[in-house]
Structure to design on (565 residues):
């Protein structure tokens, strides 16, 4: 009995050793995008023989891993080409997979390279959700949000908020939000109002997104507050300060201003532009409000 | 009746000897391992996925046990010649076939009952350890509606067992396995057969498809896994009709199996 056990152990150890040596000089081919052998939802539905929901879970995990992997990846090959087809399969297999529509639209809208930068596909996905998952008001809100935040089409955003407000069980704040969007679309306060609503979301991922965006809005507020100081320097000296230190000394700033995460802002002495540091988790800031905080150069 | 119960008891003991209960252990391990592993990959959807995985595993394990034990129920006795000793006893052929069927169904019910307990234990553990993500669950962790899906899984595997037993009465185990798996697969295309008229214009083809729809076992209505996982109600009428359909269809197959078996000559 002992001899076969020893033999098995020795052979197994040998196999492991050979693998370790082989893997030092070889890695399996990984295509830049995962292969999707079946791209048709209805066909896949037939192939999985009644296990649609489980198959949807598997494709959802593939989508999450794919998105996470791409976000961490670097280089020119970075693309999110398979993201929408994966989400399309998930929602074909399980039309009530609410998270797939809502998270999926976030994955799709996030600006490249943090996301696919495809708000059009996000809207398409959410419209499928409206058609196939009882027209939940959250999908209308999410579409309005994509129009507001990513496409800056405040008219369309307000229209979707209004449509959402008409759905059964819709949140009471949707109608006032539509009015505010029409009146003051593009203002940081309106953005803050929307993200604050999302801070109460029952989905952790959306809550953390809201926290990040609110911190970015705070950073933008700080930049807006510091910009007049910079402008004063530029007006007086007729040039851009050479560094933060020069600006701080000339304008008697107590310290270099920092963003809400504690990372000091960076200052571009060529363009005279204040921004969050690339080292900060708030980087990059949305382009939306930069126009309001760019100083007038001499 | 007593003879039938004795045959059923023998089937149950044999399944234990065939290590069928190992499937329950595998199921429990699979669920527990999955619940740890998937939480990192699912963006907060671990409860839904564990429910899907648990119900799908029960369905697959049940179906595999039904097919691979069902196909040997009669043919094994014939191959081993033990059928002669059995039929020499005061057991009619009808009692023999029905006893075999009830024995395997009892094995499956016990198997699935233990799996259900393991399933609820894992769900209870996840419920206790879950954080605020509980708010996003479409249905409570220990939702009793899951039992409806499990009841229909049991009914489905009872039909599949009847299919396997039917083929087992006149064909080899390999052929029986292929035919049973083929019918199980076809049983999930019921809606396509029913809606054949929407894709072809040929009236005879539509008629054939309609006949096949009614003759082949329609297993799709037994699947309410997605509904219960999402917390949607399942109509009591649907459950009652599906159970009645399962009982009648299994009855048809068992009657045919008994009729074939009674005519068989084992010389």
């Amino acid at each position: 009995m002992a001899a076969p056990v020893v033999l098995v152990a020795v052979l197994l150890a040998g196999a492991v050793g050979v693998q370790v040596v082989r893997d030092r000089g070889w890695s399996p081919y990984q295509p830049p995008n995962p292969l999707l052998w079946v791209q048709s939802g209805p066909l896949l539905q037939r192939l999985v023989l009644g296990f649609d929901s489980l198959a949807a879970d598997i494709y959802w995990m593939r989508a999450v891993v794919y998105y996470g992997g791409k976000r961490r990846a670097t280089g020119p090959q970075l693309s999110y080409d398979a993201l929408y087809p994966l989400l399309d399969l998930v929602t074909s297999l399980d039309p009530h997979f609410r998270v797939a529509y809502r998270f999926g639209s976030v994955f799709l809208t996030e600006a490249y390279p943090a996301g696919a930068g495809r708000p059009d596909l996000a809207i398409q996905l959410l419209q499928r959700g409206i058609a196939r998952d009882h027209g939940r008001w959250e999908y209308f809100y999410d579409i309005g949000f994509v129009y507001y935040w990513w496409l800056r089409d405040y008219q369309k955003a307000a229209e979707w908020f209004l449509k959402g407000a008409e759905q059964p069980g819709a949140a009471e704040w949707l109608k006032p939000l539509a009015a505010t969007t029409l009146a003051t679309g593009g203002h940081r306060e309106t953005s803050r109002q929307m993200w604050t609503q999302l801070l109460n979301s029952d989905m952790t991922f959306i809550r953390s997104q809201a926290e990040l965006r609110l911190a970015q809005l705070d950073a933008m507020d700080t930049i807006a507050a510091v910009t007049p100081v910079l402008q004063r320097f530029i007006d007086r000296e007729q040039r851009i300060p050479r560094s933060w230190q020069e600006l701080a000394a000339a304008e008697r700033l107590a310290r270099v201003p920092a963003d809400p995460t504690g990372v000091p802002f960076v200052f571009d002495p060529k363009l005279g532009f204040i921004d969050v540091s690339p080292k900060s988790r708030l980087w990059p800031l949305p382009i939306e409000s930069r126009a309001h905080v760019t100083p007038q150069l001499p | 009746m007593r003879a039938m119960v004795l045959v059923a008891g023998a089937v149950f003991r044999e399944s234990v000897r065939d290590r069928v209960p190992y499937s329950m252990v595998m199921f429990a391990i699979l669920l527990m391992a999955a619940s740890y592993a998937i939480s990192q990959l699912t963006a907060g959807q671990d409860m839904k996925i564990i429910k899907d995985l648990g119900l799908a595993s029960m369905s697959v394990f049940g179906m595999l046990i039904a097919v691979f034990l069902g196909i040997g129920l009669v043919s094994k006795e014939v191959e081993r010649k033990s059928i002669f000793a059995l039929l020499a006893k005061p057991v009619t052929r009808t009692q023999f076939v029905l006893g075999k069927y009830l024995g395997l169904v009892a094995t499956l019910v016990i198997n699935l009952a233990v799996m259900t307990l393991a399933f609820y234990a894992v769900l209870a553990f996840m419920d206790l350890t879950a954080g605020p993500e509980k708010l996003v669950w479409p249905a409570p962790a220990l939702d009793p509606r899951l039992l409806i899906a499990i009841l229909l899984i049991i009914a489905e595997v009872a039909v599949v067992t009847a299919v396997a037993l039917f083929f087992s009465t006149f064909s080899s185990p390999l052929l029986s396995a292929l035919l049973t798996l083929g019918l199980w697969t076809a049983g999930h295309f019921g809606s396509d057969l029913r809606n054949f008229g929407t894709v072809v214009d040929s009236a005879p083809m539509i008629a054939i498809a309609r006949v096949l729809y009614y003759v082949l076992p329609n297993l799709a209505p037994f699947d309410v896994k997605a509904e219960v996982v999402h917390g949607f109600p399942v109509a009591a009428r649907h459950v009652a009709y599906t159970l009645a359909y399962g009982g009648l269809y299994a009855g048809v197959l068992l009657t045919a199996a008994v009729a074939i078996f009674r005519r068989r000559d084992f010389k």
User: Anything to note?
Assistant: Residues 52 and 64 of chain B are 18 Å apart (CA to CA). Residues 2-188+223-263 of chain B form one domain. Chain B has a mean pLDDT of 86.
